[in-house]
Design goal:
- By secondary structure, the chain is mainly α.
- It has one domain.
- The protein is 64% helix and 0% strand.
- Helix 1 runs antiparallel to helix 2, helix 2 packs across helix 3 and helix 2 crosses helix 4.
- The longest helix is centred in the last third of the chain and has 21 residues.
């Protein structure tokens, strides 16, 4: 993913600008942040199938289909990936607050 950091950063900025324009909460992690966290996790341990599916989905949303043709998105039940994404965002936001306090 290191070769795609410009695209990831651009997606991060676009999402924040869209939120600012819509007067939405800027403190919530972006999809790009979720992508980077999952990417970092994958360097330390194999991803569970559900997290790998979330990684594929978020990668497509952030940078398009580049590099993820072999990754498939599967849910054990409808809404599973949304639930896992919310958990990641909650964990990212919590870790941010620990750093700033």
């Amino acid at each position: 993913m290191s070769g795609m950091m410009d695209e990831v950063y651009a997606s991060h900025v676009r999402e924040l600008l869209a939120r600012a324009e819509a007067k939405e909460d800027l403190s919530q992690p972006t999809k790009a942040e979720v992508l980077v966290v999952i990417s970092q996790l994958s360097l330390h341990a194999p991803l569970k199938d559900s997290v790998a599916s979330l990684y594929a989905r978020v990668m497509r949303e952030v940078i398009g289909d580049v590099g993820c043709e072999v990754l498939s998105v599967r849910e054990a039940y409808p809404g599973e990936l949304d639930e896992i994404e919310r958990e990641f965002k909650r964990a990212i936001k919590t870790s941010r607050s620990r750093v700033t306090t």
